[in-house]
Amino acid sequence: MSHLGRGMQPAAPTSPILSRAEPTTPSAIALGSNLGDSYQILQAAFDTLAQTPHVSLVARSSIYQTAAVGPPQPDYLNACAILETSLTPEALLSTLLMIEAQFGRVRRERWGPRLLDLDLLLFGDRCLQTPTLQIPHPRMGDRAFVLVPLAEIAGDWIDPATGQAIAHLLQQCGCSGIQRFEG
Prior knowledge:
By secondary structure, the chain is α+β, with helices and mostly antiparallel strands. The protein has four helices and ten strands. It has helices at residues 38-50, 89-102, 144-154, 166-173; strands at residues 25-33, 55-60, 64-66, 76-85, 117-123, 128-129, 134-135, 158-159, 164-165, 179-180. The strands form three sheets. Strands 1, 2, 3, 4, 5 and 10 form a six-stranded antiparallel beta sheet that branches. It starts with 24 loop residues before the first strand and ends with a strand.
């Protein structure tokens, strides 16, 4: 059963690295940027994900502009992507953190401005809590800037923590203040 929703945008290009014999897990990630040329940074991040070993970029959402949460700072551009990966959740998180570092991400303050933020939202139908990783992402259901792009590409994906579809979580959260960014 596919976790991808209606209106999904196919990824281009996809990674040829995954072998058909290698078991994979669908995963959802959120991307965000509010420093530098955020649109180009997100485009480059999609390209980097598509070329990452053991990761295949399956779908990517449109890019949305949203007001920042936290200290005063520029608006964010946000998007989501669906990946297929043979990595463990911990290895995928490590890979995402390495990609952030490649883009110059420096963690200074919680919810502060950033060149690139990659959050692991969902990993198949797994619930996981470790000292460094919680899946599903603990604040995903409260963040319209995550749910709007995620619902665009995976609206029928069931959040294993709540048992509700992403589209339903979005209806509960609302989506005011979020607009599609027209690069």
